[in-house]
Amino acid sequence: MRAERKKPSNRTQKGKRPGKLTSKQASRQDPKHVAQRAAKKISRPATKGAQEHRTKKAAASAAQKHSAKKARGRTLALPTTIEKKRVRLRVNKEEYELFIYPHRTLAEVLRDELHLTGTKQSCNEGACGTCTVLLEGAPIRSCLLLAADAEGKEITTIEGLAESGKLHPIQAAFVEYYAIQCGFCTPGMILTAKALLDKNPHPTEEEIRSAIAGNVCRCTGYTKIVEAIKAASEAQR
Amino acid sequence: MAEYSLIGKGMQRVDAIAKATGQALFSADLALPRMLFGKVLRSPHTHAKIVHIDTSRASKLPGVKAVVTGRDSSDEKWGVFRYTQDQRFLPVDKVRFIGEEVAAVAAVDEDTALEALDLIRVEYEELPSVFTVEDALKPDAPILHEGYRGNINIHVKIDVGDVEKGFKESYIVREDTFIAPEESYFQAEPYAVVAQFDNGGCLEIWMPNGGPHLKSKPLANVFGIPLNKVRVRKITIGGAFGGRSEISPADVICALLARKSGKPVKIVYTREENTIATRQAHSMKAIIKTGVDREGRVQARDITCYMDGGAYSSTGPIATSVPFLCMEQAYRMENVRYNGYRVFTNKPIRGMYRCHGRAFACGVDLQLDMLGEELHIDPVIMRLRNARQPGDYTPTKSYVGSCGMVETIERSAEAAGWKEKFGKLPPYHGIGVGCNSVQTGFPMGIRGGSEAFVKFNEDGGITVISGVVDNGQGNETMLVQIAAEELGLSSDDVQLVSADTEVTPSDPGSYSMVSTFVGGNAVRLAAQDAKKKLFVIAAKALEAKPEDLIAKDRKIMVKGEPERSLPLTKVVRMGLSRGQSISGEGAYWPRVDSRREWVENPTGQLSEAFSFGTTIVEVKVDPDTGQVTVLETWAAQDVGRALNPKIIESQFEGGLAMGGQGGMLTEYHVFDRGRVLNPTQLDYKLPLACDMPKIHNIIVETIDPNGPYGAKEAAMSIAMSAAQAYAAAVCNAIGVYINDFPITPDKILEALKRKKA
Fold it and tell me: Which residue of B205, B382, B613, B713 pairs with B372 in a disulfide if CB–CB is 3.0 to 4.6 A?
């Protein structure tokens, strides 16, 4: 199974002419300069909504974008394009073969290509923990990892926790102990808890609080979440 | 007391499994065939004329399907009230803050949309800006909106009793100024919208909302279509806290793009956009003058409050009033004057926030501690002497029926061991108390009431139809619990259809703390209506009187004679086969004074019920670093009746985290000439699991005569008293009062230095 992205409209060959590079143009193509421009972009206080999104991707795609823009401006024509890459992902014990741009994050690919929308995106800068998934059993922020870098590794999302319709004990505890309010942080929280209990089946309260300190919840004040994880741990005894 | 099978007991949240398994869909999770991605171009200027917008290059970019500017929008302006309509969803003449929407693009993917934004050329002519209330009020200040002299957006004036006489008769009078910068909602879910038009010209739209009907009306206005063509759909919502009650420009822009492109469009805000371009809380300066007698009873109070409203009115009149109203409810005050000013500045727009003004609430409470100290009266005694009592009228003439303020003070003080602790703790340990009172709704005009339907199926199960929305607080569970209780069903027998303007009747939304009271009462009445019909059918078969019947355990039985019963399913089928109606309908309109108006006439019954609460906090401060460690907290609230105690506890806990731990210790925005410097999650410090103290919940029940089963407001409140208790506890620990919130380590060290000097 795979899902291909729609036509990459801004990366068509249309309008591009072969041509010679001036030295200035050539230097713009230099990865170092591109990186500098990307860095400049980051340091510019964001005004446009998607700045955050943009800066994250800038480093990965600036070179290509730049050439595409120039192509449209008819000042430069350099047929460089970022090419899609074949990536094999193993998610929730199923194999997926995907054809994706290399700058796409795991969070984006899980959500947009595999439609595993249980993985939520919130801050997109690794601060909120909402997009947590398990990579080889360890909790990682899928907004910070390129999907291509997850190749060959076992990925577990919230959709992979319940087995044959039966809730995982941590999920059941979250339900039973009222640890869920709006539910947006819940998938990441549960996966972080799973990683903790897999490694340390009977953590102290302090260990629990420390383990989920990277998962922000705005609704609950964490009390009932900690209680739920404790209960799930007890149930394992 | 009536014996309930579900009310007052734990009932699993109806949405919990979907949320725990990742199946619950939020707006950003939606994907429709042919769907486009929308992105918004925002103003880089704090105040500027829009001279010209050139979208031609963006439109030509392959993959771009629609570009919209103010010219694609109608002239309709948004404002909650007729007299506050000042915001165009896409401005044509000028922009008033950094981040204001200027144009938008829909394209086949996000990257293309972003690239297209870069191709839009906007020519601005910069105008002078104002960034602080002080500057905005200066006579020569640039004016943001014509007709608003001195940039005063709203002035709420309340004057009750004889304030001057009260001060004269006071034993001591003191005046203090309290300030606090803006804080943010930081809902877990960033704002997202999906919109599409069908062939019949109906708009179908999904977005986080504090009430779908509050969204549908402005959308109908903008698009010039009747309300039955605006379908605001039910969707899981990742938190609101007061911040999603209004229409958002994103809703209109997304719909405009969908109309222009003829395709579904999705806009997902970044975290930064969610902070800047949805709503923030008001920054505030509260000048509070209070006079008390020898026993510490308040004789007079005069409060002047300046609120930075940002660039537009938003919920201005409400937001300017509620901080005062909460305090006039919480404490007795006969002679009181309030002047609340909401002032326009070239900053993002401010709305109603759960805490409703840290500077205000903490100011009133902290000043009671200051006055008590001068009089050698314990803070808890100060509060007991001034506490609101049942049967009182508030200064603005609201009758207070049920009121457990005293009980919340006494029970929390006892649980906390106040007597043993206050004044007796080791150095740099402190304990503090704060009180709150919150409305259970307020006059909401035509949308003040809620209506609900209960439909029986032939298998005895029901579908409940209600406009109540759930932002995460558990409203859906509450509705199911009430319907199941009334009809003797289990929660599994109830399906809920809610918060969808195509099928659910009008409802005030969740942001006035009224969902349980008004929406819950409507569902209860609908269920009772259906029950009455079933009882008439069953009475004949059971040879009993309808009024002697009860519904329990999926049976209809004669009260006290469980052997004389009929399965509910059978009665339903009897009704169906005889063509008798067995569906129920119910409507509830709260008894509030509809003549009451926030600015023009702030007097009369504000809300049908008020909740009251107390929070106590014990802290330890490190005098070397200024770090505060919160040791233990006690949260008590009079909620009328706890329909689902665990859900209420989780509201207390969340409120304490938001109002106290975050609101008083770490959360605030920093601005540089109108630019928010910390809009992201890395820079804005929310409380984490490792920060949170032990929370002891104390639920106080006063069984309100009009609430469903006696329930009233229960969710916003603790955030307010927690803020006060945190402030008081830290001040108590360091032996100095800090009037500048939140109380960050630098302020603590500064205060300690001042104390030594």
Answer: B382
Pick the residue from chain A with its C-alpha nearest to B238: A182
Q: What is the C-alpha end-to-end distance of chain B, expressed in Å?
A: 61
Between chains, do A174 and B16 touch, taking CB under 8 Å as contact? yes
CATH topology for the A169-235 domain: DNA polymerase; domain 1 (1.10.150)
**Cβ-based contacts of B19 with chain A (< 8 Å):** 180, 183, 186
Taking only the tens place, the pLDDT of each residue in B158-176 is: 999 999 999 999 999 999 9
Across the beta sheet with B628-638, the strand order is B429-439, B610-621, B628-638, B694-700
Numbered ranges of CATH 1.10.150.120 in chain A: 169-235
Distance CA B511, CA B351 (A): 11
Percent helix, strand, coil in chain A, to 5, is 45, 15, 45
Return the structure tokens found at B195. 């919109």
- Global confidence as pTM: 0.92
Number of Cα atoms under 13 Å in the Cβ half of residue B734? 30
Q: What is the pLDDT of residues B444-471, one digit of tens each?
A: 889 999 999 999 999 999 999 999 999 9
Cα gap B285→B281, rounded to integer Å: 13
Q: Where in chain A is the domain with CATH 3.10.20.30?
A: 85-160
Report A:8-67 residues touching B (Cβ under 8 A): 8-10, 12, 14, 45-54, 57, 61, 65
d(CA B499, CA B205): 12
In whole numbers, what is the pLDDT of chain A averaged over residues?
78
Interface contact A122-B189, CB threshold 8 A: yes
Cβ count within 10 A of residue A67: 22
Q: Measuring CA to CA, which residue among B337, B340, B345, B316 is closest to residue B133?
A: B345
| Residue A134: strand pairing partners | A139, A156
Q: Is B597 helix (H, G, I), strand (E, B) or coil?
A: strand
For the record, the structure tokens of B408 come out as 């919340």
CA nearest B439: which of B714, B642, B648? B714
CA proximity to B265, closest of B116, B90, B120, B104? B104
Q: Which of residues 111-150 of A touch B (CB under 8 A)?
A: 111, 115-125, 127-128, 130
* CA dihedral over B132, A51, B206, B185, signed as positive or negative: negative
pLDDT band of residue A80 (cuts 50, 70, 90) is low
Nearest neighbour of B16 by CB, restricted to A180, A219, A221: A180
* CA–CA separation, B731 and B619 (whole Å): 10
Sign of the dihedral defined by the CA atoms of residues B330, B245, B144, B136, in that order: positive
Do B514 and B708 form a contact (C-beta atoms < 8 A)?
no
Q: Do residues A218 and B187 lie in contact, with contact meaning Cβ atoms separated by under 8 Å?
A: yes
State the fold for domain A85-160.
Ubiquitin-like (UB roll) (3.10.20)
